[in-house]
């Protein structure tokens, strides 16, 4: 396999990956009937919200709307994130919008809980501040205080159960996400809300057996998701750059199960029951995250919650690249320039390999006359042609395979950046030149076309071997145009990286082509003594 075939292999591998990404779109969860949060009959959920009993608490980044009677979360606005580029209203993660409906039903189940299969709590507001509210409810001699506090994008829920009766009661905190998947986002940034169409949207859970598991909507609809009991973990609804998560703090463990009814997907998280002795008080603390996928902060909410920033199999490259981007941005201040700087740093890091690639590529180009002469001397004798060709290669220290390894190194970097650009909320709505949003496709197709033009010019600097298979030759000539089509719908930031990388490649190719052409023309290229060892065909076994 010569260098051109190696490049062709890498290109086809990348294209195959992009085709696979476009075809396989993960989604969300599955159901199983149970009576826990039959505290809310799934047939009566609808999309209505009791606005008459709504109250709001907030800080500088999150405004949470709560049903004061039940303590459910019925609305959440991210005050630092606009809905779209043109719609400057805050983005909502919890809402009663039929197109992206999501609310959180929560409370205390169990024999001594606030909620049962037929009734919900009827709280009254005991106290309220800007970022916190305490609700109180008394039933059958038991007093329940529910304090809800917003702390950044975290929502802290504290339950205090005061058992003033003469018998032991059992309670179990629960939370249910009731949602309807948002429609697939458009391909271009002006109309996207949550993120790219390549990003995952749906249910994710973490349990003892699997710290990160995507559950598809079809599993929920078909009741294929089986109830899971776990001692640790969390449940979350991923909305591309954003996530709504519940991390129970139950020492006894909890169960996860799902329901589907009237278009509503319901994901229930139910703690195992805890006994509350007579004349005693038990406290439960739960944590929610309602906000962007900020990796450093997600790690503090629950173990492995940062995995919702889904870098796929390339996480070991995407994560350090993201950290490097953050570091560079702290000095540069513009994400477009940061991507350009990232490209330069990455190319510097892999420059030793690139030097081998481009020098060998230029060397193969300048010794073409000797290779042609060797083929002419060999005539139609294929074994002699191979022998003569290898002599020329060994004379100058050239290799047909050296150019493949740097390309193999760059492919996982490209894929890591593909995941990174799809998951980094930092790039959302960040502009650069005419680009409105570096996390989305270029609405004017300028970057994909520029990328295609740089590829066409780059290919013109590396002529294909004369003996190349005609079909391979045609495919290689078509490759830049194929890439233009594929890159139309990829994040602008990724294409910007590729354009800058192509320009650097072109500079290297021109430099080494000129340098080795001069050295060859003036007989200054180092040569090596070649031992004449004819290649013979292997003997046949009798």
From TrEMBL:
<comment type="function">
    <text>Required for the insertion and/or proper folding and/or complex formation of integral membrane proteins into the membrane. Involved in integration of membrane proteins that insert both dependently and independently of the Sec translocase complex, as well as at least some lipoproteins. Aids folding of multispanning membrane proteins.</text>
</comment>
<dbReference type="InterPro" id="IPR038221">
    <property type="entry name" value="YidC_periplasmic_sf"/>
</dbReference>
<dbReference type="GO" id="GO:0005886">
    <property type="term" value="C:plasma membrane"/>
</dbReference>
<dbReference type="GO" id="GO:0015031">
    <property type="term" value="P:protein transport"/>
</dbReference>
<keyword id="KW-0653">Protein transport</keyword>
<dbReference type="InterPro" id="IPR028053">
    <property type="entry name" value="Membr_insert_YidC_N"/>
</dbReference>
<keyword id="KW-0143">Chaperone</keyword>
<comment type="similarity">
    <text>Belongs to the OXA1/ALB3/YidC family. Type 1 subfamily.</text>
</comment>
<keyword id="KW-0812">Transmembrane</keyword>
<keyword id="KW-0472">Membrane</keyword>
<dbReference type="InterPro" id="IPR028055">
    <property type="entry name" value="YidC/Oxa/ALB_C"/>
</dbReference>
<feature type="transmembrane region" description="Helical">
    <location>
        <begin position="441"/>
        <end position="461"/>
    </location>
</feature>
<feature type="domain" description="Membrane insertase YidC/Oxa/ALB C-terminal">
    <location>
        <begin position="335"/>
        <end position="513"/>
    </location>
</feature>
<feature type="transmembrane region" description="Helical">
    <location>
        <begin position="327"/>
        <end position="350"/>
    </location>
</feature>
<dbReference type="Pfam" id="PF02096">
    <property type="entry name" value="60KD_IMP"/>
</dbReference>
<dbReference type="InterPro" id="IPR019998">
    <property type="entry name" value="Membr_insert_YidC"/>
</dbReference>
<dbReference type="Pfam" id="PF14849">
    <property type="entry name" value="YidC_periplas"/>
</dbReference>
<feature type="transmembrane region" description="Helical">
    <location>
        <begin position="401"/>
        <end position="421"/>
    </location>
</feature>
<keyword id="KW-1003">Cell membrane</keyword>
<dbReference type="InterPro" id="IPR001708">
    <property type="entry name" value="YidC/ALB3/OXA1/COX18"/>
</dbReference>
<comment type="subunit">
    <text>Interacts with the Sec translocase complex via SecD. Specifically interacts with transmembrane segments of nascent integral membrane proteins during membrane integration.</text>
</comment>
<protein>
    <recommendedName>
        <fullName>Membrane protein insertase YidC</fullName>
    </recommendedName>
</protein>
<keyword id="KW-1133">Transmembrane helix</keyword>
<dbReference type="GO" id="GO:0051205">
    <property type="term" value="P:protein insertion into membrane"/>
</dbReference>
<dbReference type="InterPro" id="IPR047196">
    <property type="entry name" value="YidC_ALB_C"/>
</dbReference>
<feature type="transmembrane region" description="Helical">
    <location>
        <begin position="481"/>
        <end position="512"/>
    </location>
</feature>
<keyword id="KW-0813">Transport</keyword>
<feature type="domain" description="Membrane insertase YidC N-terminal">
    <location>
        <begin position="56"/>
        <end position="324"/>
    </location>
</feature>
<dbReference type="GO" id="GO:0032977">
    <property type="term" value="F:membrane insertase activity"/>
</dbReference>
């Amino acid at each position: 396999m010569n260098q051109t075939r190696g490049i062709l292999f890498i290109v086809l591998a990348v294209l195959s990956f992009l085709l696979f990404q476009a075809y396989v779109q993960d989604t969300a969860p599955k159901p199983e009937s149970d009576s826990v949060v039959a505290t809310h009959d799934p047939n009566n959920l609808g999309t209505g919200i009791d606005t008459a009993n709504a109250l709001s608490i907030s800080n500088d980044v999150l405004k949470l709307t709560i049903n004061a009677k039940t303590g459910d979360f019925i609305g959440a606005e991210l005050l630092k994130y606009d809905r779209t580029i043109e719609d400057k209203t805050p983005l909502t993660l919890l809402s009663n919008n039929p197109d992206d409906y999501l609310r959180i039903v929560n409370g205390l189940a169990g024999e001594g809980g606030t909620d049962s299969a037929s009734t919900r709590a009827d709280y009254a507001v005991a106290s309220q501040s800007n970022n916190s509210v305490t609700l109180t409810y008394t039933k059958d001699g038991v007093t329940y205080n529910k304090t809800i506090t917003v702390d950044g994008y975290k929502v802290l829920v504290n339950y205090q159960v005061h058992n003033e009766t003469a018998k032991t009661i059992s309670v179990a905190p629960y939370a249910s996400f009731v949602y309807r998947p948002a429609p697939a986002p458009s391909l271009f940034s002006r109309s996207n809300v949550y993120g790219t169409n390549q990003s995952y949207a749906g249910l994710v859970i973490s349990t003892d057996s699997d710290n990160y598991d995507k559950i598809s909507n079809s599993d929920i609809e078909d009741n294929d998701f089986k109830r899971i009991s776990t001692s640790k973990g969390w449940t979350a609804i991923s909305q591309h750059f954003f996530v709504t998560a519940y991390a129970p703090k139950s020492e006894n463990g909890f169960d996860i199960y799902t329901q589907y009814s009237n278009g509503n997907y319901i994901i229930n998280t139910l703690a195992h029951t805890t006994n509350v002795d007579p004349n005693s008080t038990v406290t439960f603390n739960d944590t929610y995250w309602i906000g962007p996928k900020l990796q450093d902060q997600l790690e503090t909410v629950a173990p492995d919650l940062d995995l919702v920033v889904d870098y796929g199999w390339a996480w070991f490259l995407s994560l350090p690249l993201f950290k490097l981007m953050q570091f560079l941005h702290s000095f540069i201040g513009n994400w477009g320039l940061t991507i350009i700087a990232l490209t330069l740093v990455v190319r510097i890091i892999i420059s030793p390999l690139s030097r081998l690639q481009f020098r060998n590529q230029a060397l193969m180009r300048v010794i073409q006359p000797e290779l042609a002469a060797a083929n002419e001397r060999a005539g139609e004798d294929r074994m002699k042609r191979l022998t003569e060709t290898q002599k020329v290669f060994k004379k100058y220290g050239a290799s047909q395979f050296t150019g493949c390894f740097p390309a193999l190194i760059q492919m996982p970097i490209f894929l890591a950046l593909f995941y990174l650009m799809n998951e980094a909320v930092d790039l959302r709505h960040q502009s650069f030149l005419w680009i409105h949003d570096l996390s989305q496709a270029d609405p004017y197709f300028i970057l994909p076309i520029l990328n295609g033009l740089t590829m066409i010019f780059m290919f013109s600097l590396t002529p294909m071997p004369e003996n190349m298979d005609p079909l391979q030759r045609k495919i290689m000539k078509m490759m830049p145009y194929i890439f233009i089509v594929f890159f139309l719908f990829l994040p602008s930031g990724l294409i910007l990286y590729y354009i800058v990388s192509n320009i650097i490649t072109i500079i290297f190719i021109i430099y080494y082509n000129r340098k080795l052409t001069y050295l060859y023309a003036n007989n200054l290229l180092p040569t090596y003594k070649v031992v004449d060892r004819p290649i013979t065909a292997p003997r046949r076994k009798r």
